[in-house]
């Protein structure tokens, strides 16, 4: 012990004082820690408990299987195919390369496939199953399963993927599904958590897109406990998913297949509608494509081939394509004038081959003129001047109104992509859209379905069905959703004078069945299935005065994209309308030559419910018909549209 | 300065010394270590492997060291203070050259039988040296500038070396431990006020230096400060640790989720759950009651240390006892503040509980010193 001194004692006291200060500080800090502990563990415990649960519990979605699509007879059009795939878990595999090498001997794997798999395996956590190969044959799976002991970490799995067994027939109607993209997410106002699943398949076009909600079904959920790196520890609870609704279309597959086959080789479209209830029995658009390519992920060359084809295989021309309806619009003009009392059935107009309106000369397609023309003759021979005259009497607004009543210029409620509204122009429209006054010449052009008038094949079919029945036929594509029939719409009387309609129908009958009618060559010979129709040829270019003086260039001498569109609308049987058909052949030339035979063939196919007997054709057309029947019978829907011409020629030889 | 200053005769001798140990402190230390084993068993998922068995062996070694140190007379320890200080400095230099690099910091030196962290040792040797210094220094010189600068230099040498490793947490602990001994020795208040003012100035300077060529601390330390200030700005990156730690701690509630039932630690959401963040597991599984109890044990150790110091008229012994108490206090106070989001994550273990050999050995050795002072106190 140091000798005690005054100083030592004073020093010891000071040390003790400071020790109390330090001790007090320490206790204060500890008090602070206790307060903090209490705040977090007692006051905020609930919040933190919640956060801990969020950490630990993951909710995994169980994707539902998508609803199936059937045709009107119950044939499957869109199904969920079992997709066999091989997955590998790195931590179970041990030596990844060794296992992969053994796998290659059993299953055909491309080098890209292998590289991608190796990359995935390296990147992902060791316990995450990585897909090595997809869409394998059952044999491959069987071989892998049989060799399971030599392939640690490798398992065969079954998933579902969409497939379209009748792919190309329905490419435009059904559309296709594909993995959800950022663009889809921004476009769809859809909070369904399923969309957050990477590569979840949703409808991209057509019925698949329009009826996405019912088809998709409802996700199930399972609660799983995961650890910090995401490894699943156990399943806590599970709620199964609800399968999407099955959908039945009104389309008749044999007819649809025939339509696609018949249109093959052209850039064309055809619609078959039931005159009674509006059921769409066929909606064809050619060329077509294989929607299965899109489901699997289309290759760049395939995509380019489809995208750069001037026939635009990807477009659903039947509903998206709008064309000047040409002479098929004349029924509208005629009905307008009749209903307005501006013309009688027998009143004649003299056609000299042209008509002067406001110092402009409007031509009839027949340079020499038709002479004196009444209503019946005007439709039968498709005189233009007659309609110029009628249109000047009634004015555009009434024509436009009639067109809309008959289904042109209104968007029909059909669940396909980009259904076009078409256009039934009137004065107000031109003022609003073009900002210019309606001119008398516009009325003259519109009277024969040229100028601003635009209609889709669907609208023309609806128009024809409405004229044939006098009722407001509404097209229906979906027969039932989840077994519940969709209500039939329309069917109310259009309120048109029956006498006027009868006269129009009679004239349309004459078009097909009287010598001199524009579609006489494409008539049906069977007594019970007589056709009534109207041809149309719509110009896509302007014919100048010089050209007219020189002589109008023939379609055959023009480049394809400057040729006229060929149109034809018809219904049958003429005395008791069952079906209405519209056909448009893009740049096909004259309607009577290019479109009418196709429509007639389709109509026969629909009426007979299969291949019609050759007797149904006029004798002059039978050899051609027989040849067409052989061609369509061997139609291969999966042939690339680019090979079309060569193969057709081969068949001819 | 020799043992002759001490009245040897009054001190107990031989194995009788054992009776004069401060047994409450030994019991408290053992309880805290027991809590540590229990928590290590829990974070290993109910297994003594890999942490508990190693830790128990270290505890055994540490207790042996504590008794041996306690048996040696306190004047011996006073006389070897300078040597111990120099020895720890040499080890700090050695770690620069032969140290193992772990997680971006060069802290360990492998001595064959144990991987030693010299910076842990330095915490105690600095306290020892300063206690000896103020024991030697005549009292009237305590607050003279020259005699104040000397211990400051003695503190700053190891502090700067540990900072170089880099280990901000330990260097702060050494600095504060040394400062506390100076304060206890009676250095004038004004020095501390000015140093604290300067410290605040330095912190401002550190923040000013960010992104410039003369940046004073490492980027990762800046990020830790950022995430300390606002952990939510990077919840999955640098802020992940502290966010998860707070969730674990808070979700414990009053009584905790039950032993080995803490989801945060069991499912590995907690970082460093067996070392720096072990307190969060305790708080998660035993709740506020468990966490408070551990803090109470620590508080009792501090109180018994201060009580021992107050009863010890020997200046060296008292300063050493207080210094060790402060160092021990700084350990758990910084660690707890850190995991509760009150201080940046600087890498300070929870004393006697966290898995780690160096800090366990050094702390038990330090308690041995304190016991030696207690046993050999003049009476």
Summarize the structure in words.
The complex is a heterodimer of chains A (653) and B (379). In chain A, the strands form seven sheets. In chain A, strands 2, 3, 4, 5, 10, 18 and 19 form a seven-stranded mixed β-sheet that branches. A five-stranded antiparallel β-sheet of chain A has the order 12-11-23-22-21, sandwiched between helices. A three-stranded antiparallel β-sheet of chain A has the order 1-8-9. Chain A is built from 26 helices and 23 strands. By secondary structure, chain A is of the alpha+beta class. Chain B has 379 residues and is mainly alpha-helical. Helix content of chain B is 65%, strand content 3%. A three-stranded antiparallel β-sheet of chain B has the order 1-2-3. In chain B, a hairpin with a 2-residue loop joins strand 1 (100-102) and strand 2 (105-110). Chain B starts with 22 loop residues before the first helix and ends with a helix. The model of chain B has no long low-confidence stretch (mean pLDDT 87). Classes of the chains: A alpha+beta (653), B mainly alpha (379).
The proportion of residues in beta strands of chain A is 15-25%
Shape call of chain A: elongated
**Fraction of residues in β-strands of chain B:** under 5%
Question: Spans of chain B with pLDDT under 50 lasting ≥5 residues?
Answer: none
Biggest β-sheet: strands ordered side by side in the sheet of chain B: 1-2-3
Characteristic terms for this protein:
heterodimer; A: 653 residues; alpha+beta; seven-stranded mixed β-sheet; five-stranded antiparallel β-sheet; 23 strands; elongated; disordered C terminus; B: 379 residues; mainly alpha; three-stranded antiparallel β-sheet; 14 helices; globular
């Amino acid at each position: 012990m140091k000798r005690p001194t005054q100083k030592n004692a004073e020093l010891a006291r000071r040390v003790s004082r400071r020790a109390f200060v330090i001790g007090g500080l320490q206790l204060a800090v500890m008090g602070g820690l206790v307060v903090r502990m209490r705040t977090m563990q007692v006051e905020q415990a609930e919040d933190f408990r919640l956060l801990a649960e969020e950490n630990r519990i993951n909710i995994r979605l169980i994707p539902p299987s998508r609803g199936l699509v059937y045709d009107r007879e119950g044939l499957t059009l869109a199904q969920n195919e079992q997709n066999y795939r091989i997955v590998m878990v790195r931590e179970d595999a041990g030596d990844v390369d060794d296992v992969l090498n053994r796998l290659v001997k059993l299953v055909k794997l491309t080098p890209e496939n292998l590289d991608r798999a190796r990359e995935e395996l390296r990147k992902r956590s060791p316990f995450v199953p990585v897909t090595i190969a997809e869409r394998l044959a059952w044999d491959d799976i069987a071989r892998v399963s049989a060799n399971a002991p030599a392939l640690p970490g490798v398992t065969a799995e079954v998933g579902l993927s969409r497939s379209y067994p009748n792919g190309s027939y329905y490419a435009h109607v059904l559309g296709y599904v594909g993995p959800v993209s950022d663009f889809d997410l921004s476009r769809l106002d859809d909070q369904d958590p399923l969309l957050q699943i990477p590569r979840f398949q949703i409808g991209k076009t057509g019925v698949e897109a329009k009826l996405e909600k019912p088809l998709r079904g409802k996700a199930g959920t399972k609660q799983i406990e995961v650890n910090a790196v995401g490894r699943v520890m156990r399943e806590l609870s599970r709620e199964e998913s609800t399968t999407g609704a099955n959908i039945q279309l009104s389309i008749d597959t044999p007819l649809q297949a025939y339509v696609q086959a018949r249109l093959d080789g052209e850039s064309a479209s055809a619609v078959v509608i039931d005159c009674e209830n509006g059921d769409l029995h066929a909606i064809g658009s050619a060329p077509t494509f294989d929607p299965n390519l899109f489901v699997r992920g289309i290759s760049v060359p395939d995509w380019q081939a489809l995208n750069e084809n001037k026939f635009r295989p990807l477009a659903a021309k039947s509903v998206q394509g709008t064309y000047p309806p040409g002479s098929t619009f004349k029924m509208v003009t005629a009905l307008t004038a009749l209903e307005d009392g501006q013309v009688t059935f027998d009143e004649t107009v003299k056609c000299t081959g042209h008509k002067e309106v406001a110092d402009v000369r409007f031509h009839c397609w027949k340079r020499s003129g038709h002479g004196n023309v009444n209503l019946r003759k005007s439709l039968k021979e498709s005189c233009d001047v007659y309609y110029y005259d009628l249109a000047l009497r009634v004015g555009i607004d009434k024509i436009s109104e009639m067109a809309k009543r008959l289904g042109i210029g209104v968007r029909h409620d059909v669940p396909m992509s980009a259904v076009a509204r078409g256009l039934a122009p009137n004065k107000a429209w031109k003022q609003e859209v073009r900002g210019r006054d309606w001119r008398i010449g516009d009325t003259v052009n519109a009277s024969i379905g040229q100028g601003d008038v635009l209609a889709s094949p669907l609208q023309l079919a609806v128009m024809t069905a409405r004229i044939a029945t006098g009722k407001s036929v509404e097209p229906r594509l979906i027969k039932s959703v989840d077994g519940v029939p969709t209500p039939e719409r329309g069917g109310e009387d259009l309120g048109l004078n029956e006498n006027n309609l009868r006269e129009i129908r009679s004239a349309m009958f004459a078009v097909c069945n009287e010598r001199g009618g524009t579609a006489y060559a494409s008539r049906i010979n069977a007594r019970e299935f007589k056709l009534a129709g109207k041809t149309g040829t719509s110009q896509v270019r302007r014919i100048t005065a010089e050209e007219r003086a020189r002589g109008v260039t023939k379609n055959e001498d023009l480049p394809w994209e400057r040729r006229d569109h060929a149109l034809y609308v018809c219904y049958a049987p003429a005395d008791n309308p069952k079906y209405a058909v519209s056909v448009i052949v893009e740049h096909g030339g004259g309607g009577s030559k290019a479109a009418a035979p196709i429509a007639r063939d389709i109509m026969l196919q629909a009426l007979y419910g299969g291949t019609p007997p050759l007797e149904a054709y006029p004798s002059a057309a039978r050899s051609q018909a027989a040849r067409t029947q052989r061609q369509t019978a061997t139609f291969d829907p999966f042939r690339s549209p680019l090979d079309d011409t060569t193969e057709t020629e081969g068949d001819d030889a | 300065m020799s043992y002759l200053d001490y009245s040897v005769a009054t001190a107990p001798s031989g194995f009788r010394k054992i009776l004069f140990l401060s047994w409450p402190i030994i019991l408290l230390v053992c309880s805290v270590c027991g809590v540590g084993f229990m928590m290590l068993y829990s974070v290993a998922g109910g297994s003594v492997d890999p942490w508990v068995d190693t830790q128990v062996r270290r505890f055994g070694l540490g207790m042996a060291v504590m008794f041996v140190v306690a048996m040696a007379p306190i004047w011996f320890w006073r006389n070897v203070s300078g040597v111990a200080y120099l020895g720890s400095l040499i080890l700090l230099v050695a770690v620069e050259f032969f140290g193992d690099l772990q997680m971006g910091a060069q802290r360990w030196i492998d001595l064959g039988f144990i991987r030693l962290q010299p910076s842990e040792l330095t915490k105690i040797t600095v306290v020892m040296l300063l206690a000896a210094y103020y024991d030697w220094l005549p009292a009237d010189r305590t607050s003279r500038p020259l005699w104040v600068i000397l211990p400051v230099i003695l503190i700053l040498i190891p502090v700067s070396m540990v900072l170089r490793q880099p280990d901000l947490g330990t260097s702060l602990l050494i600095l504060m431990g040394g400062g506390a001994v100076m304060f206890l020795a009676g250095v004038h208040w004004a020095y501390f006020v000015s140093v604290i003012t300067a410290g605040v100035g330095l912190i401002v300077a550190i923040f000013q230096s960010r992104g410039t060529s003369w940046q004073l601390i490492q980027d990762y330390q800046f990020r830790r400060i950022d995430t300390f200030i606002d952990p939510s700005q990077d919840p999955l990156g640098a802020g992940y640790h502290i966010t998860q730690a707070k969730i674990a701690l808070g979700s414990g509630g009053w009584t905790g989720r039950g032993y080995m039932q803490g989801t945060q630690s069991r499912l590995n959401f907690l970082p460093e759950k067996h070392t720096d963040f072990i307190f969060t597991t305790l708080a998660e599984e035993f709740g506020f009651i468990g966490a408070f109890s551990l803090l109470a044990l620590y508080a009792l150790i501090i109180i018994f240390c201060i009580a021992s110091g107050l009863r010890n008229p020997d200046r060296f012994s008292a300063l050493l006892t207080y210094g060790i108490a402060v160092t021990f206090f700084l350990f758990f106070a910084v660690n707890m503040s850190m995991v509760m989001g009150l201080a940046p994550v600087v890498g300070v273990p929870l004393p006697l509980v966290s898995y780690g050999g160096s800090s366990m050995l050094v702390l038990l050795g330090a308690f041995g010193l304190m016991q030696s002072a207690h046993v050999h106190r003049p009476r």
